[in-house]
Amino acid sequence: MRTLNLVIMNKVTFYFIVSIASLFLFSCSKNDPVAEITPPRAYADQYKTDIADIKEYLTSYYITVVNNPGKTDDQDVTITKIPEGGTQRPIMSYKDATTYPKLLIRNVKLHDVDYELYYLVLRPGTGASPTNVDGVFAAYRGDYLQRIAATTATPIIPSYISATKFEEAKFPQSFFSLYSTVPGWGETFPQFKKGTYTTNADGSISYNDFGAGVIFLPSGLGYYNRGAGSIPSYAPLVFSFKLYEIQRLDQDNDGILSYQEDLNGDGYMYDYRNTVNYPTSPEDAIRYADDTDKDGIPNVFDSDDDGDNYTTKLELKKPDETYHTFETVPSCSGSAAGVKRYLTANCKPPYTN
Q: What is the architecture of the domain spanning 43-247?
């Protein structure tokens, strides 16, 4: 009986292996079509389409802004298509206005493309501005743009640009880093300032004088061919936002806050190891504006800012094992006046202060 059971088990095993092998062979037939991977479109070509759509949107839509200081709907915006024959003021007409709202353009070099980033300043804000690697506490709404095809039925409707909401955060709950968002956010937020806020008796918060605006992003400064959630690939994006507060981050955790590593004070620092955030070619002088040791890694991402093989963190340490803050870091004798020791390559530990 035991021998018979072994024979039966061996046959079952044999037929199971044959079945699996056959299934594998048939499923891998040479005649089966192979799924093709479509390469991303050329950035320059896609930008031509995106900027044309954005400009059409700016000339065919108008904006309504709520001015209600201290209330939750203050600086809420509604963007509506101008009806045929309508006399509403198009958004594009605010370009370079002398009062707010004011439509401005920021030129952004990315992907070997000279992007025009349109942004509407509703209110600039009154406090400090974030750098492009800081955290922001902001309410926002996001829409994506798409072209609606023309209809030939009566009445004939030509193609037009339409906006579809994909996300909204009226009451933000946390900060998020501009370095982790789409490039267009990091390029725009440093142009705005935070405001002030007070806590009411009922525990609610009233925000005042905050920076508020609307940005119009070509897909190359958004999600490009990846899309995101309900956002289609290659969709230009429109974000309205209110900048309530900023959070100073330390991207490389070296003890110096990121905004304090903005050596030229322009609010922008770039990581040249990450091609998504390359704004310029390696030969461009901007590359080294915030890079003390000229190694291609800006100080904000460099654990050894002066390239002397001692980490910045180590160069902040005092003899008593505590650490200097940015404000208290001394300079070395013989170095340029005011240049802190962690930025001077010939100034190395151990230190006496």
A: Roll (3.10)
| Token pair recorded at residue 20 | 């699996």
Q: Are strands 135-148 and 160-169 parallel, antiparallel or unpaired?
A: antiparallel
- Residue ranges with strand state E in the chain: 61-65, 77-81, 102-110, 113-123, 135-148, 160-169, 176-177, 196-199, 205-208, 211-217, 237-247
Give strand pairing partners of 62: 80
Query: 134: which 2 tokens?
Result: 């800081």
What is each CA distance from 143 to 60, 168, 217, in whole angstroms? 16, 9, 10
Q: How confident is the model at residue 125 (pLDDT cuts 50, 70, 90)?
A: very high
Nearest alpha carbon to residue 287 among 297, 300, 274:
297
For the residues of 12-78, what is the DSSP string, one character each? Answer: HHHHHHHHHHHHHHHHT-TTSPPPP-PPPPPHHHHHHHHHHHHHHHHHHEEEEE---TTSTTTT-EE
Distances (CA, A) of 95 to 53, 133, 164: 17, 28, 24
Residues 6+ apart with CB under 8 A from 174: 137
- pLDDT category of residue 334 using cuts at 50, 70 and 90: low
Task: Please write the tens of the pLDDT for every residue from 44-102.
Answer: 999 999 999 999 999 999 999 999 999 999 999 999 999 999 999 999 999 989 999 99
Cα(351)–Cα(322) distance, rounded to whole angstroms?
12
- CA–CA separation, 81 vs 283, rounded Å? 44
